[in-house]
Amino acid sequence: xxxxxxxxxxxxxxxxxxxxxxxxxxxxxxxxxxxxxxxxxxxxxxxxxxxxxxxxxxxxxxxxxxxxxxxxxxxxxxxxxxxxxxxxxxxxxxxxxxxxxxxxxxxxxxxxxxxxxxxxxxxxxxxxxxxxxxxxxx
Length: 138
Fold this sequence. Notes:
The strands form three sheets. Strands 3, 4, 5, 8, 10 and 11 form a six-stranded antiparallel sheet that branches. A three-stranded antiparallel sheet has the order 1-2-6, with no helix packed on it. A two-stranded antiparallel sheet has the order 7-9. The protein has one helix at about 1-25, and strands spanning about 30-35, 40, 50, 55-60, 65-80, 80-85, 85-90, 100-105, 110-115, 120-125, 130-135. It is α+β, with helices and mostly antiparallel strands and about 140 residues long. A hairpin with a 2-residue loop joins strand 1 (about 30-35) and strand 2 (about 40).
């Protein structure tokens, strides 16, 4: 009698753990597309649909210094892609279809600067707990 109950219960728990893992640990797909002195950061779902992105962090790969950081301000921001280029970049580069972002870094001003020859790492959080990341250089 106990084996009849234990096996289905274990199977159900394994299925629930799998679903929870997919829901909470899913990461957005991040593709970088170089276009001259710029990089298009693509986060579309299935290459076509906007993706919910709640946090974007760009930092100097060697020093770890944060250069640019956006977090959800309201709603559920969804984006297809955004452009980063060598030189000055607007803090509104990631313009969501829905919702809005708030810039954490830079704390003041309307732009941030990316320097040629410097290695950067971008981390992007979707709806899960863990970020996707990619390295870039101009």
